[in-house]
Amino acid sequence: MTRITRRAFTAFSAGAAVTVLGGAAPAHAVAGPPGTHATAARGTGPARRARELRGVWIASVDNGNWPSAPGLSADEQRAELSALFDTAVERHLNTVYLQVRPCADAFWPSSYEPWSRFLTGTQGRSPGWDPLEFAVREAHRRGLELHAWCNPYRISLDEDLDALVDWHPARRHPEWVVRYGGQLYYNPGIPAVRRFVQDAMLDVVARYPVDGLHWDDYFYPYPVEGETFDDDEAFEQYGGDFTDRGDWRRHNIDLLVQETAGRIRTLRPKTSFGISPFGVWRNAATDPKGSDTTAGVQTYDDLYADTLRWVREEWVDYILPQLYWHIGFEAADYAKLVPWWSEAVDGTRVRLYVGEALYKQGAEGQPDPWQDPAELSRHLTFDQAWPQVQGNVYFSANEVVADPIGAMAQVVADHYPTRVRPPR
């Protein structure tokens, strides 16, 4: 069984794993606007922006970044989070994306879902404090924006429904649940599910002065070889006039995005709503409006996430594609995808930020560009040619702190001489 993670984007086709890996392409070749196959030389960028977003993801799922282990004392958890915020300030960052709902659970006292097991080691057990209240207060005290990062549909990292706390909504409504790839998911095709997950996530917006509600790249799950996401019954019951299941699935996710956006604007109008999708909407070989890429995953086709439509309809305030590839990467070249996304947001009110793979710098098995501490700094230099790009976000907090080969330090030295405010 292959688990798709944020760090490994692998699709499966024709019975073989197709990983988004490849060789080099000329760094100067960039894509034209969506709908073209044109290339153009990289232009000369503007002066340093007066405002730009400089962010970091702090992952809680599986205790990836924070807390570092389940069951730490409240004082230890507060100290760890404070240290991460302090490092963000030292690196001249201005925004943190804190994962507060990783698996249909909560890092705040929620009436919808149980306390996360990543806090105490036991789902539903109170940690004895309110981590989200503390996080918002401490971030704002340091001049950091805090965006509450939620995963809409993932319930559990394994498929044992009985392992969930007995009052968990998934146990009360097993008809909402789909087992897939060794994990549990809420079924996006059931209208009651769509309303429930919105209510659970918007509880944060209603109760806390967060600067944003943030989703990552998981909608329908990443494809797993030899498995089918079993939504036959939901399609039969709720498919309406849709004859194509893919179109129906995209419609379900579109409704989630559109409805959530509308509710946020009613609840707390100054709170931003943004999504960080996998970096390829569609390859040009699949759709002429797509990017000049040969990625093994396409969000439109594989995750049923029509990210381009969300931008064009202005359902999101910002889009933050995960462009986790180096300049010149054959299958998905950073220097082709930044222009594609820039053209996608052009003429809209949607802000474009770029997700950066800091975790790849110096990592064993990564190709030569990721062994060079200057690679990420080159990304930001490249971005200066595209005024639509209003900032960059780094995955993840562990690497912002450890910075094993000095890549983050070089970004700061080359591009972040002082602190600035994020766009608004």
Structure, described:
With 424 residues, the protein is an alpha/beta fold. It is built from 13 helices and 15 strands. Strand 9 (177-180) and strand 10 (183-186) form a beta hairpin. The radius of gyration is 20 Å and the shape is globular.
Keywords:
424 residues, alpha/beta, eight-stranded parallel beta barrel, three-stranded antiparallel sheet, 13 helices, 15 strands, 15% strand
Stretches where pLDDT is under 50 for at least 5 consecutive residues are 1-45
Please work out how many helical segments DSSP would assign: 13
- The tally of strands reads 15
**For the report, how would you describe the main beta sheet?**
8 strands, parallel, barrel
Q: Which class of secondary structure composition applies to the elements?
A: alpha/beta
Instruction: Tell me the series of helices and strands, N- to C-terminal.
Output: EEEEEHEHHEEHEEHEHHEHHEHEHEHH
Order of strands, widest sheet: 5-6-7-11-12-13-14-15
| Cα Rg | 20 Å
**Terminal-residue CA separation:** 43 Å
Strand content: 15-25%
Overall spatial form: globular
Output mean pLDDT.
Answer: 91
